[in-house]
Design goal:
2 domains; ATP-binding; Nucleotidyltransferase, domain 5; three-stranded antiparallel beta sheet; six-stranded mixed beta sheet; ATP-dependent protein folding chaperone; ATPase_NBD; ATP binding; disordered N terminus
C-alpha cells in the first residue's frame, strides 16, 4: 500500500535517514535507490506538526497535539524551533502561546499545564518527544531499524541548538551524524 515499504538504501550497512524540520513541521526522508524520499505516515501525511500536548495522561505529538490546542491551549507547546537554543531575552513571546517559558539557572524551560498541574520540560525533552515519534514512524512505515540520523533544517542551527538536537537524539538512542541546511518545500 505504501511506497515507503521499499527497502532503504544503506551505506556501510546503515540505513540513511533524515529528520527534516521547517517552520512548525517535521518529516522523515529515507534514501531509497539513491534518491531521498519523504516518508508518509499510515494516513498518507508527509509533514507532522511540531506540537506537543500534555492534555491527556500520555503525551501526544503531531496532529493530535495540534487538535488539542483548540480546547486546551495551556497544555500544548509549539513554535519549538523559534525557542530552543536562545536565551529568554532573545525569544519573542507570542500571545497565542498558552504555555509559558520559565528560566532557571540561565536555562529556558517550557511550562505547560497537565492533568496533574503545571509542569516544566527542558528543551531537550520536548524535542526528544518529536524524535521518538519520528523514530517510531520510520520503524513502522519504512520498516528499517537505525541508530544514525541526519538533520535538515531550513535555517542555520547555532552550536547551542545543535547540542539540544544531539541530546534529544541521544534520549532516543540515536546519533546525529550531520546537520544540513536546505530550502525545504
Amino acid at each position: 500500500m505504501f511506497s515507503d515499504r521499499l527497502a532503504a538504501t544503506t551505506i556501510n550497512g546503515r540505513p540513511q535517514i533524515k529528520f527534516v524540520f521547517r517552520d512548525n513541521l517535521c518529516a522523515i526522508k529515507v534514501l531509497k535507490k539513491g534518491i531521498w524520499e519523504l516518508s508518509q505516515d499510515h494516513f498518507g501525511n508527509v509533514w507532522t506538526p511540531l506540537y506537543h500536548s500534555t492534555a491527556e495522561v500520555t503525551v501526544a505529538t503531531g496532529k493530535k497535539a495540534k487538535d488539542h490546542y483548540e480546547k486546551f491551549p495551556k497544555h500544548v507547546v509549539f513554535d519549538v524551533l523559534k525557542i530552543i537554543g536562545k536565551p529568554l531575552n532573545q525569544i519573542k513571546i507570542d500571545p497565542k502561546w498558552g504555555f509559558k517559558l520559565v528560566e532557571k539557572n540561565e536555562v529556558v524551560y517550557f511550562q505547560s499545564e497537565t492533568i496533574f498541574g503545571a509542569k516544566s520540560y527542558t528543551r531537550e525533552m520536548i524535542l526528544s518527544a518529536f524524535f521518538k515519534a519520528l523514530k517510531l514512524q520510520t520503524l513502522s512505515t519504512a520498516n528499517v531499524k537505525f541508530e544514525e540520523i541526519r538533520i535538515t533544517t531550513d535555517f542555520e542551527l547555532n552550536e547551542s541548538q545543535k547540542a539540544i538536537f544531539e541530546k534529544a537524539a541521544e534520549m532516543n538512542f540515536l546519533k546525529i551524524v550531520s546537520f544540513h541546511i536546505a530550502n525545504i518545500e
